[in-house]
Amino acid sequence: MFPEKFIIRMQEMLGEEYEAFYETLREERHQGLRINTLKAETEGFLKKAPFSLSPVPWTETGFYYEGTAQPGRHPLHEAGVYYIQEPSAMAPAAFADARPGERILDLCAAPGGKSTQLAAAMKGQGILVCNEIHPARARILSENIERMGIRNAVVTNETPERLAERFAGFFDKVLVDAPCSGEGMFRKNEEACGEWSPENVELCAERQDTILDSAAQMLQNGGRLVYSTCTFAPQENEGTISRFLKRYPAFSIVKLGKPECFSPGRPDWIPEPAPGIESTMRLWPHKLKGEGHFLAVLRKEGTLSDISSLPLRKDGNRRASEKECGEFLTFASQSLKGWQGGNYLFFGEQLYLLPPGMPSLKGLKVLRPGLHLGTMKKNRFEPSHALALALKPDEVCLSAELVSGEENKDYGPAFAWLNGETFPLTGEKGWYLITVDGYSIGWGKLAGGIMKNHYPKGLRKNWR
């Protein structure tokens, strides 16, 4: 089932613990989801969750669900109320301690679990840059940012080196969930098992060194760097951190309180351990309900400064004046309550709202420069699906609920909506925020007593 050289190495590392470790890898893995607090209050959601949940100890918003449940095939998933995420993978973003108003970079962000967790902690305030070097994975990342209703995120498809040229010393916090040999995911991903080799472990360690070099450049003095992998290999964990600290003496390992089920880093598994390496953390599948993970929290010496932004440059994607945004502002006055506005940016006919203080993105590969508001068409504005998912019913003038009641809920109308169906409604004509259980799921436009379905055709599903 597992590569022979991997087994031999793990036997040497774990000794008497190996049998318990090996037996765990033959068991069914634990399934988890994380409640999106940008949309739902944890306690409120738990009272009406359509499936049984139990808490993940290291994340307040993380929960296990039973293997028979299918939360990914539910309207509340499409509404971004929760994110399906492996339980151990919830730990790194939790230890980043993200706060509202900070400037945070998720450097290797796809598919978006950690980015969306950081965004929830930021509560829509500050700047979150989510980067992914692989184009296809960057698109998935962007889709998840949209689904979770995140307003203050920018999605880029760049190399770490290119970002470091643009964002030197800009971020308060940087999360590096580094590409790795994936040993901790062997029972989840058989492909990772088939691609494993000692040579690949070494290549991954070299790549991690390079990525961390860029991360160090982008962190301001006094900032926090969180490094994580989903592998057991010491070269990629304690080894990578020790090599980094040797190159960057301005950084040190932060000793933090951790759950009892987390294990300390192992200085005895690498040739030149850095001081304090035992304060890094290992998550072992035979010691907790989750896959294998490693994480380290580092601090850059100095004091955090209040950098409002880097110098703004004129760029090809021009900032839009309020006059140019006339059709959108008309829509906002007719359909939205208390719209605050901000810095608008055109990508062709697409209108975006930039996070306050965001520097120029000119020359970078950008998939999402902020919140996508919609499309400027001739003499009219059409709101985007992203805007709908970022709004709550009390932020719009008109809304329509597909599912209501506290018990024995019928989600049939919601499934029909996801399949693109319309429904009759008597009411004021115009744009309606469509909701499920009070959570926004898209736009509808009422005309002639029929609610036209504006759920994106590429997202429509027939699950019934």
Automatic annotation (TrEMBL):
Signal peptide: none annotated. CDD domains: AdoMet_MTases, RsmF_methylt_CTD1. It is an enzyme of class 2 (transferase). Transmembrane segments: none annotated. Pfam families: Methyltr_RsmB-F, Methyltr_RsmF_N, Methyltranf_PUA, RsmF_methylt_CI. Its EC number is 2.1.1.178. This is Ribosomal RNA small subunit methyltransferase F. It comes from Eisenbergiella tayi.
